[in-house]
Design brief:
- It is a single chain.
- By secondary structure, the chain is of the alpha+beta class.
- It has one domain (about 5-315).
- About 25% of the residues lie in helices and about 20% in strands.
- The chain has nine helices and 16 strands.
- The chain has a five-stranded antiparallel beta sheet. Strands 2-13-14-15 form a four-stranded antiparallel beta sheet, sandwiched between helices.
- A hairpin with a 2-residue loop joins β7 and β8 (about 185-195).
- The protein is globular, with a radius of gyration of 19 Å.
């Protein structure tokens, strides 16, 4: 993936504070009418098929070769409802992580566009022929994610299994599957790969990568009429554990999004592009436009290393 002026680089950095971890109450749409997808960009068709495109819009442009980065940046207001509240919430001194998680969740419900503006998650439709049950599909899917996340680390980086005991503010305790990362930008081994990693039904692992099943949307050409799809908002990423979470990390205790920072100098654009390229053609990864590190305000979808923008030709083009 080559994009001028590092257009994509800051777009992809938003994964560190995405709301996907606390937006589980959103319901995915199953069986979208193919007629609803007609005339939209591939990116928007993907999100419509996943049921999370309420505030997403395509930009109408001229010939593809006439589309410059400046043009896209000028027209971003047409791509998503940015008239909604732009306020951000960060961890505050003296306020517990549980309370801050509740504030994030409340904010998501107050501002309906929050998920699509700030979120980052995967949309996928695994062919039904790949698994006999949703549980088997879950194992296959999370293993794919884990293998892609590990193998996409740049040269000079290594990862070792480093599980944490999770005691979330909501729900029961569980074991959080994660990997400790060491490398040029993580010399002390305090970076972590965290997310929807390999599920093992024989263990009490934290819920990640649950699958549902339903009709295969028209955007996917798998040949199967039905598919398994993530019932939550699966994602994975590599982060630096910050000072706030370091003691817990070293003692293998629960850490969450407030304990993560972006790794200074790490090429996130290249990492997520490589990760996407190692996932099947039926797996897509959405990145919302709004984040402290995303100055482009461009919603995008990755598919096998290719960047899909929310743009379509003007009528008659």
């Amino acid at each position: 993936m080559k994009i001028g002026k590092a257009l994509f680089k800051s777009s992809l950095l938003m994964a560190s504070i995405a709301l996907t971890g606390c937006a589980g109450s959103y319901t995915k749409k199953v069986g979208v009418d193919p007629k609803e997808l007609e005339g939209h960009s591939e990116a928007l068709q993907v999100m419509m098929s996943g049921g999370n495109a309420k505030f997403l819009r395509d930009i109408e442009v001229g010939e593809a070769h006439d589309v410059s980065e400046d043009t896209l940046l000028t027209l971003t207001d047409a791509a998503i409802g940015l008239s909604f509240a732009q306020g951000t919430i960060s961890s505050m001194p003296g306020v517990s992580d549980g309370t801050m998680s509740a504030v994030f969740l409340l904010n998501a419900f107050i501002d309906e566009s929050s998920l699509e503006r700030k979120g980052s998650w995967m949309e996928a439709w695994m062919p039904a022929s790949m698994a006999e049950t949703e549980e088997e599909a879950r194992i296959i899917w999370t293993q794919m994610i884990e293998e892609a996340a590990l193998s996409s680390l740049p040269e000079g980086y290594s990862a070792e299994l480093y599980e944490l005991e999770s005691n979330p503010p909501i729900g029961s305790s569980c074991t959080l599957r994660a990997f400790k990362v060491t490398g040029p930008k993580c010399p002390d081994g305090t970076c972590i790969i965290y997310g929807a990693l390999k599920h093992d039904p024989s263990r009490d692992l934290c819920d990640q990568g649950k699958m549902g099943s339903g009709p295969t949307p028209g955007i996917v050409n798998s040949g199967d009429a039905t598919s398994y799809f993530p019932s939550g908002f699966d994602k994975v990423g590599v982060f630096q554990v910050n000072e706030k979470g370091m003691e817990k990390f070293l003692n293998r205790k629960y850490i969450n999004q407030f304990h993560f920072d972006l790794i200074d100098g790490f090429d996130y654009s290249a990492y997520y592009s490589a990760l996407s390229s190692k996932l099947p053609s039926w797996a897509y990864w959405y990145f919302g436009p709004e984040n402290r590190n995303n100055h482009t305000q461009m919603p995008v979808v990755l598919n096998q290393g290719k960047t899909l923008f929310f743009i379509k030709p003007k009528p008659g083009q």
